[in-house]
Every structure is written in structure tokens, then in C-alpha cells.
């Protein structure tokens, strides 16, 4: 199975909406609103088109990943970072490495765009495979109550979080 990863195009939006909806349909840790979140982010300042990627198999969209801009701030400084939300793969294509390919490509593209950190609220058993660690290890906190093991950070470059601490600030589109 050949998987092609590319930047999402506007004409993909409807298929991506359906793909995300199907991917999270039976997910117990989901509010089943991820597809609406993506629509809102696309219209916000946080959207970075180069970090909105789709996976295709035989010209069919089977996966999607979005990294969008957030900040980490404390009482003295603001630091740019990215939020991973969501990564989605159609159920019949899950466990075939497509999510991994999407994540690796998104991380690489983010490095090329000079981003240093990615934050995710996700499965504590899945994301550590991609070098995500609990954000609390870096003194970076979520702006809401969440299990510490599920709120994670990935340094895209070594020691990127060494001198960064504070609370993650998400764009308002995340809170609707």
C-alpha cells in the first residue's frame, strides 16, 4: 500500500470533515467535535496551511493531521509553539502506519518552518513513540484540568523547551 502525504487543499475540506468524523466516531475519549474544531482553526490566525496535511491511498483521502499555532506564556514571556489536533485515520486504514507517517511529515514540516515545540492532549501510550513526554516534565502546564500523563510535549529540536515554562494558551477557536 503506497501512502502519499501532501498539503491539504480547499477542495479537500468536505472529505476531511467526513474523514475526521468517521475516525473519532467510536473513540471514547472524544467529544466527537474534532471536525468542527478543524473548520474553526482554518478560519483563524492559528492556521498554517503547510501544517494541514492529508494522506492518500489510491487517490482516496484516508488520513489527516493538523498542527496550529499556540503560545506558552508566563508572567514575563510568550513563546510560540504548535498544537497537534487532530490526527485522524479512517477506521479501515488504522494500524497500518498512516498516522505515523502523517505525524513524522508534520513534525518535519514544522521544523522547516522553524517551530521548536508541539503540544498534544492525547493517548499516553501512543504519542511517546514519537518522543512526546509529559509537558509537566518541562514545567509547561495545560490551561485546564487534564491528566498530566495525557498532556504532552515534543521538542522538534534538542533542548527547545529548556528555558521555556508557563501555561499553554490556545486560540479561542479551541474553546467554542
TrEMBL record:
PANTHER family in the record: L-AMINO ACID N-ACETYLTRANSFERASE, UPF0039 PROTEIN SLL0451
Record's protein name: N-acetyltransferase
Source organism (scientific name): Zunongwangia profunda
GO molecular function: acyltransferase activity, transferring groups other than amino-acyl groups
Pfam families, per database record: Acetyltransf_9
Entries under InterPro entries matching the protein: Acyl_CoA_acyltransferase, GNAT_dom, MshD_Acetyltransferase
Keywords carried by this UniProt record: Transferase
The organism's place on the tree of life at top rank: Bacteria
Boundaries of every N-acetyltransferase domain copy: 3-157
